[in-house]
Amino acid sequence: MRVSDEPLINQARERFALQDYYGAIHLLQELIDAGRTFADCHHLLGLSYAMLGQPQRALEHFGKALEQNPRYIEAYIHRGILLNDLGRTVEAEEAFRTAAAHNEKLPSGFPAHVAANLANHHALLAAAYAESGALPQAIEQYRAAVALGPNFADIRYKLARALLEAGDALSAREELERVVADRPNFVDALASLGLARYLSGDIAGAQQVWHDCLLARPKNARVEAYLAMLERAAE
Q: Bridge-partner residues for 22, per DSSP?
């Protein structure tokens, strides 16, 4: 079971650092095509397209990053810089104002950008633990990340996947219910929610979620396999 897409996005960051923007885009597009997209992915895509002189595509991805994480300060700032370069100064000033407004202190006591940075570091450490098979430590770090970034649906999803792998279906279900409520089109989270419901004894609930998945993404082999499993069990 894969609990993290960090290796792929880290490779994309390395490609970006080496100024191989097309290489970064290729890796990030793999995540999107697999339905595992999240705010950091779109932000880095935006930066890559901006560096290649494709401002409209860059703005599109900055916008998608902000849809998934409305407190993504770096995305507001980079969007503002690009808008300013395009002469869209009113929109640029609005982006900068929004970034400043989001830089307030959160309940954690940290400014928003600091909390987001710390959350991402905890998530990276959690992924390293998970890939080493140390699930209790991975879950602890993911929980710390979620506490700092409660609106980071991608990190909450990874926490839920780790909980599922650790056999804690009820806790995973609780996390996934929130992810799906925040991002109803997150099909991988929907599929995992169905699994969490199934493992916690809610067969009808699992079946309903998996049918919803197929409506959103027909011919999903993973979900079709889950539904076939239910049909065999009912025979």
A: none
Task: Classify domain 6-101 by CATH number.
Answer: 1.25.40.10
The answer to whether 6-101 and 167-235 have equal CATH topology is: yes
> What is the SS3 string spanning 6-65?
HHHHHHHHHHHHCCCHHHHHHHHHHHHHCCCCCHHHHHHHHHHHHHCCCHHHHHHHHHHH
Q: Is 201 helix (H, G, I), strand (E, B) or coil?
A: coil
* Superfamily (CATH H level) for 167-235: Tetratricopeptide repeat domain (1.25.40.10)
pLDDT in tens, 89-147: 899 888 888 877 765 555 556 666 677 778 888 998 998 899 888 999 999 999 999 99
Residues 25, 150: Cα–Cα separation, whole Å? 28
Tally Cβ neighbours within 10 Å of residue 161: 25
Nearest Cα neighbor of 188 from 229, 226, 228, 157 is: 157
pLDDT digits (tens, 9 = 90+) for 57-96: 999 999 999 988 887 888 888 898 889 889 998 998 888 8
Domain regions of the chain by residue span: 6-101, 104-150, 167-235
User: What pLDDT, in 10s, does the model give residues 217-234?
Assistant: 888 788 888 888 888 776
Whether residue 73 contacts residue 58, with contact meaning beta carbons closer than 8 Å, is answered with: no
Residue entry with tokens 């880095």: 44
